[in-house]
Amino acid sequence: MNHDRTEPIRIGRIDYTNVWPVFHHFEPELLRCAPRLVRAMPAELNRRLREGAIDMAAISSFAYGLNSEDYVLLPNLSVSARGPVQSILLFLKSPLETVLDGGRIAMTTTSATSVNLLKILMEKFHGGQPVYESAEPDLDSMLTHADAALLIGDHAIRASWHHHGYEVIDLSESWYRFTGMWMTFAVWAVRREAAAAMSADIAEIYEALVDSKRRSYGDMRPVIDHALRTVGGTEAYWKGYFEGLNHDFGSGQREGLSLFFKYARELGYLEKDVAIEEWSLAGPVATPAAPPQ
């Protein structure tokens, strides 16, 4: 990518409810740089950013870990939780002991972070060896042949509202119980060449995203109303849901994410250590990879 590039910055947007507080008041058409918004599922945004088909996106944290040498992260933006997140859920048809002892887990393929968090929890913390298989995100069909099913995002939220009788494990709550740390599920990543070539445009977009987040946290009512209209549920549910989320990216979130990358590396799901680098107008600021514990 060269410095005389004339086309607008392409921003990837996940349409899951967990990013709405950052995007709800974000109006790209009002920005001087006139960026183009590209909506897609997390796995698709991960691929497009990796291939350079978009310039920046909210992507799964694990996708950043796989390609961190190509990206920098926007500071103070993430999808994180320190406890239950209510939208990354493992539904158990069989007892957990059965699942851990070679049981089958059907997994949605839409988020690499959730899939690898599940593997870390099952293998490192529970000492199990389940069999993993990919499946479309439909709880009934997933559990036809599997002992457990992983759903994320709005699929998990809707499934949790039904009285299906399955035991449900919130993976974010499990991570916090085992580590006492934040879990960061998504980050805002920018391709390094875009950050270098269009730093003023990146700065304008970043300020607009942070302002949108600030406005949402000042009054979550419009975001809750949007969730009620588009997904369903109750006002009480969505109030609790958004209260359980955090969209900052400070030292606590960085430490938790570094630990997640360290465990993924130990289990062989990442091929290299990951140093977290954040964007600034002065250039990237690095946080070293987590030291061995």
Automatic annotation (TrEMBL):
Q: Which UniProt keywords apply?
A: Lyase, Menaquinone biosynthesis
Q: In which pathway does it act?
A: Quinol/quinone metabolism; menaquinone biosynthesis
E.C. number(s) listed in UniProt: 4.2.1.151
Q: Does the keyword Lyase apply?
A: yes
Enzyme class, broadest EC rank: lyase
Gene3D superfamilies noted in UniProt = Periplasmic binding protein-like II
**SUPFAM superfamilies for the chain:** Periplasmic binding protein-like II
Q: Pfam families, from UniProt? A: VitK2_biosynth
Record's catalysed reaction(s): chorismate = 3-[(1-carboxyvinyl)-oxy]benzoate + H2O
Instruction: Tell me which CDD domains the record gives.
Output: PBP2_Sco4506
Q: What does this protein do?
A: Catalyzes the dehydration of chorismate into 3-[(1-carboxyvinyl)oxy]benzoate, a step in the biosynthesis of menaquinone (MK, vitamin K2).
Fetch the PANTHER family from UniProt.
Answer: CHORISMATE DEHYDRATASE
Family assignment? Belongs to the MqnA/MqnD family. MqnA subfamily.
Q: What protein am I looking at? A: Chorismate dehydratase
